[in-house]
Specification:
Structural class: mainly alpha
Distance between the termini: 60 Å
Number of helices: 43
Shape: globular
Largest sheet: none
């Protein structure tokens, strides 16, 4: 844009952008206005638009343009123009009234804040703003809104990545803020006593307070004598606080508690030159906050009674934040049993947090999870049993509360869907329990949950299921030689009737799978558990849980289930009809393969052949479908599912074979090769299928080593042909596997070099194209690996 456009042209463009129904006209107007904002003329045009105030759209465009120019193009203005820009901005703020659109006010305040941060010649900006816009008496309060908005966004803009402040300027601004905190706090305190028709002024005041506290420019001494802090707690205590005001007050307390936490972590040293309070000042503030927050407990209970979940969430945030902020002090107070009075006061915060965990809405309880994670981490690293045991009663209450939260609705039918929000919550509960259970002991939790439901004939199904769910979370921690309760648990689980609720049976199966290591040391229960799992695997609602349990049992207890290999083969064959994810099916194949590894040597070859044949038959069927070269992922015609299962077989089979004897897996791999070769040809344009096929071949080659020599010639020939046609980098990776396996064989070196010579021209051609290296990172990686293997 080479010349200043007329203001009427700008109005026409804005009208086209906002009101013209023609999309082409809108696009042209948007492009033109964008070019205008990038030009030097935008400064004057934006100022004019704000002075004229023709309509909301033009004022917003003017304010947004000014903000953008100051943020990204402040260097365009000579330093002598800075004062006039500042005065013009202040004049625009004077025009704000209760009818001004909020988005315009926000943009203007952001623009002024960005100007203040970059304008080095403005020495006392905050004092000037308070002097200009602050209340002169109890009646002149018109400009409090923009003043509070500017003061709120100022600290926030300090951390903006788009505003490029140098380190020296940032240091100057921090000192400027530190010298202005008394003025800001005095302003906020005075605003508390001024009546205003603006119903949001209280919210804006608290947000401003939060912003300055979060910046950590306010000293702890200033905070203790600040009337606004008392107002924050009065707002939180008041039954009549509006939702917005209550949330703003909660945010203010949380910002303050973050400062306290930082001070505790900094060991009371200064931070950024701003916080210089003594240890006594910190402790005084902390003790005051503890008492003030404890006094909020009746207000929390009132919010619960009135089913005001939003306020309950706010209280929970506050309770959790102070417990986390003072966690280090809480832990230190338990050393050598000193400070028992103070310890009791601090541990009372845990009672507050647990009160929130007991809320009927699990979203409230979940807010506390981060605190419990941090507590468990600190106790784990402290490795002090005397300190850990002091937290045991609280963790026991926590696990009991989350167990109740994990109960499904009594009228829920079937099992939970993985995508269900409640299923996600239960998964997070499981992770939490696993993290904190060392404090109370896995065996203790396991026993408590079991005894709470054992022998209770009339217990609601959802109570039983939630207890089993918590037991499942800790079951892997149970020692294999435990002989007190696990035997009774397994016997009870095996007696769960088929008429039981599907969710109870689902969790029962998962729990049995988690007890795999215990069952491996108690082989008498393995067979009945296996039969229980196999009976459930054909039930659509239980198939996933039964498959997961079967994978665990076959992987861990493989020596005890090898006599049932024929039955397991039937299960693998039936996987195609079961409603389970591919990943689960692969894990089942993995477990059955590990059982195959434990068969007598003379049985392995035939067993492996049968196991591979199941998958080869399916792959062959897919490849023989005419006009089936395009793959639809996650469907019955997707060869990747079967390639992944075959790869799992070759990867997880472990056989001790002598080099002088035929490898028991050679015949199975030779049998599989024609099918894999057909798959490579059929789906040669599909990178995803090629990568999975090469992965399968890689594990097969690694499994039998040099005994794959008969496959070498046809494999290399096909690889070279397909790579030159479609340049899939996975063939380069497979070539490096061949070099690794056969590079030490003198008879093979010539063939391997010929393979390299056949692959390189196409690879170099791709890399020599414009941006060839950046566009083909996989080829670069795999080619480098191939060269390294040759060297």
């Amino acid at each position: 844009m080479n010349e200043l456009p007329a203001i009427e042209v700008v109005y026409d463009a804005l009208n086209a952008l906002y009101h013209n129904p023609d999309p082409i006209s809108k696009e042209r107007a948007s492009q033109w206005l964008g070019d205008l904002q990038k030009s030097i003329f935008a400064w004057k045009i934006a100022d004019q638009l704000l002075h004229v105030k023709k309509d909301m759209e033009s004022c917003y465009f003017g304010a947004q343009t000014l903000r953008t120019k100051i943020q990204f193009a402040f260097h365009e203005l000579p330093s002598e123009a800075h004062n006039s820009l500042r005065d013009s901005m202040l004049n625009h703020l004077r025009q704000i009234n209760e009818h001004t659109n909020t988005v315009i006010v926000t943009q203007l305040c952001l623009a002024l804040a960005d100007l203040l941060l970059q304008m080095t010649s403005w020495k006392t900006p905050i004092q000037d703003l308070i002097q200009t816009f602050g209340p002169k008496n109890n009646f002149e309060t018109t400009h409090i809104w923009p003043l509070l908005e500017v003061l709120t966004v100022l600290p926030e803009e300090m951390g903006s990545r788009t505003l490029r402040l140098g380190a020296n300027r940032r240091s100057e601004v921090l000192k400027l803020f530190a010298g202005s905190t008394e003025n800001v706090l005095h302003l906020l305190d005075s605003c508390l006593t001024i009546p205003s028709s603006d119903r949001l002024i209280g919210v804006r005041l608290l947000r401003c307070f939060s912003s300055w506290v979060h910046l950590q420019a306010v000293t702890l001494h200033q905070l203790t004598s600040c009337a606004t802090l008392g107002h924050v707690f009065a707002t939180l205590s008041s039954h009549h606080s509006t939702p917005l005001l209550h949330e703003a007050a909660s945010d203010a307390v949380c910002a303050l508690l973050q400062v306290v936490a930082d001070q505790e972590n900094e060991d009371n040293t200064t931070q950024n030159g701003q916080l210089t309070s003594t240890l006594n000042e910190l402790r005084t503030l902390e003790d005051s906050l503890v008492q003030s927050i404890k006094n909020l407990e009746p207000a929390y209970h009132l919010a619960v009674a009135e089913e005001d979940t939003e306020k309950a969430l706010n209280y929970c945030r506050v309770f959790t934040e102070i417990a986390e902020a003072l966690l280090h002090r809480m832990l230190e107070s338990t050393k050598n049993n000193n400070g028992t009075m103070n310890t009791s006061n601090l541990f009372g915060l845990l009672d507050l947090v647990l009160t929130c965990v007991g809320h009927h809405d699990y979203e409230v309880a979940e807010i506390t999870f981060g605190f419990w994670y941090k507590l468990s981490e600190d106790l784990y690293h402290a490795n002090d049993d005397d300190r850990t045991i002091k937290f045991k009663p609280y963790i026991e209450r926590l696990i009991g509360a989350v167990c109740r939260h994990c109960q499904m609705e009594p009228d829920h039918e079937g099992v939970l869907e993985e995508s269900d929000d409640f299923a996600g919550f239960r998964s997070r509960v499981s992770e939490l329990v696993k993290d904190v259970v060392f404090i109370v002991g896995s065996a203790s939790v396991f026993k408590h949950c079991f005894y709470s439901i054992h022998g209770q004939n009339n217990l609601p199904w959802e109570v039983t299921e939630s207890a089993l769910f918590i037991m499942q979370a800790v079951a892997k921690n149970i020692l294999p030689d435990e002989n007190e309760v696990v035997q009774s648990v397994v016997e009870s689980l095996l007696q769960v009737p088929e008429s039981a609720h599907a969710a109870v049976r689902f969790t029962t199966l998962l729990l049995l799978g988690e007890l795999g290591e215990w069952m491996d040391k108690h082989p008498a229960v393995v067979e009945p558990v296996l039969h229980c799992v196999l009976r459930s695997i054909n039930d659509p609602s239980l198939a996933v849980a039964a498959s997961n349990s079967l994978e665990a049992i076959t992987s861990i207890c493989r020596d005890h289930v090898k006599s049932h290999f024929d039955i397991l083969l039937q299960v693998v064959s039936a996987l195609v009809t079961l409603p389970i994810p591919t990943e689960t099916a692969v894990r089942v194949v993995k477990g059955v393969t590990k059982v195959c590894s434990r068969l007598p040597d003379h049985q392995i070859a035939d067993a492996l052949h049968q196991l591979c044949k199941i998958h080869v038959d399916e792959l062959t069927r897919i490849c023989q479908v005419e006009n089936q070269s395009k793959v639809v992922a996650k469907t019955s015609s997707d060869p990747v599912d079967w390639l992944d299962r075959l790869a799992s077989i070759f990867r997880n089979l472990s056989v001790n074979a002598k080099k002088s004897e035929q490898h028991p897996c050679q015949l199975a791999i030779t049998f599989t090769w024609p099918c894999l070769s057909m798959t490579l040809d059929k789906f040669q344009t599909d990178r995803r299928v090629m990568e999975r096929c090469c992965r399968c071949l890689r594990f097969a080659l690694r499994l039998i080593g040099h005994q794959s020599a008969p496959l070498l010639q046809p494999l290399v020939t096909q690889m070279v042909r397909l790579y030159n046609a479609h340049h899939h980098s996975c063939f380069l990776y497979l070539a490096s596997i061949l070099v690794d396996e056969y590079g030490s064989e003198n008879d093979c070196i010539g063939g391997l070099i010929s393979m390299l010579e056949a692959l390189l021209p196409r690879a170099f051609q791709l890399l020599q194209e414009p941006q060839g290296l950046s566009h083909n990172p996989d080829i670069v990686d795999d080619l480098f690996r191939l060269f390294a293997r040759f060297l």
